[in-house]
């Protein structure tokens, strides 16, 4: 990670007047043109007509355009595995492989009821998030104009373990696959790379320190200005912002919540919470109109029922009953978050033993035990 910090410093020295992709011209020169980075072309976004693509002369317009791309994703394009208020389980949240595996299966069941990813309620949730990012967050992630006047550095955008070559001593020898590279605001370049994949957020303090130390050491070696604390603070926000707008992460709600706290502080006031902000946005006339439009585009009830029947005929009616009971939590409160707390409460309180299960087959046996007790679980009042 220290070497990546040094590599990033080298990129920071390549400054261009605009934010966009660098394209070679017929005369052998280069121009900064429309931005072809992942946030503008992944997930079918290359066909969206109403997304400003640059080149951009201001950071705020660039960030706002990415939030607009997320909004149009929610309105028009497939939502894949994304459910804003039901973040996917990830291994780091659970004590062992089997518990994580069971949480994944329970999440799949929950997502299958009502085809949640593609539902108008989920699309509306992401629309609210996009409005929130554009209206509340963009102003917090801009560096002063006096600093951006020096130009915008080059960013790789796809730093993964597959694209980084190292020697026997783990020194970086080359970085490949620059297809999505573009110029970016400095704070975006300063974001600690997510490894092994760009969708991963690096939160380990030692890794973050190593990356930043590599950058600072290289800058100091050349007697050049060092980033201040505000640069690093904004880079923390930008890393989460980019995960959200690129639509490539697994736990969008947690990234959004963390971003809110970084921007506004960890206030204990309910009126200042992220969910309070989203509720406030939801009653804006534009959002109320959008909600009706999205509802009109929902799949027919017959198709939703067919999908549900097909899925649960394979995993069992007991798991359907459990998934529907969990779904009841969000009926009175559409902003209820179904996350690790729900799955942990279920798995910790009932007769499954995951400690010795290290394979998918062993985890499936524990799921069979859980399935056999679902009737008792519901009779006992879960998920209240």
UniProtKB/TrEMBL annotation:
Alphabetical list of InterPro entries matching this protein: AGP_Transferase, Kinase-like_dom_sf
Domain of life: Eukaryota
GO molecular function terms attached to this record: kinase activity
Keywords: Kinase, Transferase
Entries under PANTHER family matching the protein: AMINOGLYCOSIDE PHOSPHOTRANSFERASE DOMAIN-CONTAINING PROTEIN, AMINOGLYCOSIDE PHOSPHOTRANSFERASE-RELATED-RELATED
Protein name: Protein kinase-like domain
Organism: Purpureocillium lilacinum (Paecilomyces lilacinus)
